[in-house]
Amino acid sequence: MTEASHQDADYVIVGGGLFGVALAFELSRMGARRIAVLEQKHLGAGATSRNIGRVRTSQFTPELARFARRAFDKHAAMSDVLGSNTLFWTPGYALVFYDEEETAHMDSVCAMLEGLGQHAEYLRGGHVVDRLPVLRGGEPPAGCLIRPDACVHHDALLYAYRKALAREGVDVHEGVRVTRVLQEHGAVAGVETEGGRQWRAPVVVNACGGWSGRLSALAGVPVPNVPLRREVLVTDSWQPFMSTMITFYRPVEGWFHQTLRGEIVIGVVDPEEPPGLELGASDHHLGRAARHVLRKAPVLADARVVRQWAGVYDMTPDRKPMIGPVDDLPGFIQANGDNGRGIALIPYLAEQLAQWLEHGSQPEALRGFETQRYKGREDTPVVMGDYYAAYRKSNSTERKDP
User: Fold this and answer.
1) What is the DSSP track for 288-315?
2) pLDDT per residue over 107-151, tens digit each?
3) What architecture is domain 3-50+155-225+318-391?
């Protein structure tokens, strides 16, 4: 092998999305110097540039709510840490619900958040529309839970990380597709890319988001992760008329909010969406989103859609991230399974994982996200449809022992 056909590193991070660049930044801050980030297209080409940027602490389990609160605080400081404005702002976040079964469940979620010291504004009946006038004239809400959560611009955050990596001297390689995970003596030895070039390293991090299952397969590591497509549409800009970001889960999951530029960002989930990595926008989604959102907020009827896109969630059966080493393949690290919460959690996830990799001990904050929790049960199905139904059992279990 010639000198030009391989490169040595201490860390090879596969995936140039938010997790990949954030982890590279945190490792470099801790003194790691030989870090290579490999991205098959361009930085942020996957889910990072195909999301709506919500940073929410309104989670459904104590474990995730605690973690999300720390992640929120991390986000709030990132403009100063990275030296570039990430366009982080706090419009607030409302979970709006429409039937008594959902109301009963949200009663327990609100109590859980209050028990963690995370105050939630909790409204019922007609008070919801008074607080959220964008819903006036639509299907009457049964209640809502509002937290002072935030939004960040995904491109601004990614750009800030990229500039910081350039200052740190971290090598970022775009247009590089990994075709093989190298192994020697039962451990990771690096990766090989198209064209036969090898990147030799004792640590390979799988930060591929919805594509993480593919890299795990190349490493011979079975995982339960499933990529799930999500679509979003954006309208033309309006004068500011709503501040709070809105999400609803019944009868199907949907969301909308107004951006700093005045656009309305809208998404409605197809409960029959099959797993896969299809990123094309569809007329089907446009019609479905319009029907469901206009039932909630008819004031949006005059909005003109100007663009659409699709991205993917990297889903796990329990809706928790996959973070940390793989016991059966030393040196192979999972940094994926964000379940649609990537941009909200990743800056803090990356900080904690970097500490684990550099110092050798698992941070307390990452307990519960271990990669081995599905060992021997990798065929556990990821239940689609009702996104938050998967939390109910774990939420009731965790509340017995806070």
Assistant:
1) HHHHHHHHH-GGGGG--EEEEEEEEEEE
2) 888 999 999 999 999 999 999 999 999 999 999 999 999 999 999
3) 3-Layer(bba) Sandwich (3.50)
Q: Using alpha carbons only, what angle is made at residue 129 by residues 123 and 131, rounded to the nearest 5 degrees? A: 65
What is the gyration radius of the CA atoms in the chain, in angstroms?
A: 21
The pLDDT score that the predictor gives to residue 387 is 60
Where are the chain's structural domains? 3-50+155-225+318-391, 93-147+226-315
Q: List the Cα angle 88/60/142 in 5-degree steps.
A: 95
- Report CA-CA distances (Å) from 258 to 145, 156, 276: 19, 17, 29
Q: Is the pLDDT of residue 318 over 50?
A: yes
Q: The pTM is what?
A: 0.94
User: Does pLDDT of 180 surpass 60?
Assistant: yes
Q: What DSSP letter does each residue of 222-237 carry, written as one string? A: ----EEEEEEEEEE--
Measured on CA atoms in the order 355, 206, 78, 265, is the torsion positive or negative? Answer: negative
At the topology level, CATH places domain 93-147+226-315 in D-Amino Acid Oxidase; Chain A, domain 2 (3.30.9)
d(CA 127, CA 140): 11
